[in-house]
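Write out structure tokens for 2-amino-4-hydroxy-6-hydroxymethyldihydropteridine pyrophosphokinase.
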Amino acid sequence: MNTVFLGLGSNTYPKAKNLSSAIAGLSSLLNIISVSGVYKSRSLLLDAQPDYFNIVLKASTFINPCQLLSFCKTIEKIMHRDTPYKWGPRNIDIDIIDFGKRIIKSKSLFLPHKEFPYRNFVVLPFMEIEPEYVHPENHISVEKMYDLLDNHSEIHRLGELKWL
């Protein structure tokens, strides 16, 4: 059994429902252990896009990392994800943040997610559900990652997500 962490985000209406629907789809193949609260953050591009709702979930699964990546892409496709341009608005985005603390560097999959330590909208919800986590490659704790971020004020916890 593998422990995995996924980051989910949505910035098109209805954001919370999009996140809930994605969790429901993911739960068909993953055993969902915990889900962070919902965090609101601005678009990475700081353009006119709507703000994002973000969560991190912890799950267990018997599938391998490549199968999980394929499964996440399938859920995005089922939910009709349509991104008009790179980092454009999207109803759902599902990223594998960590898969059993494995280090994988391939063309299609980079684990742990290479941008994870630098994104407040991943670090903060991750810290909420797994405060003792230590990155397997750089050996930095998730709490230290948070301390190193300089944009703490740009993210706000909105509350719990109803997904059952």
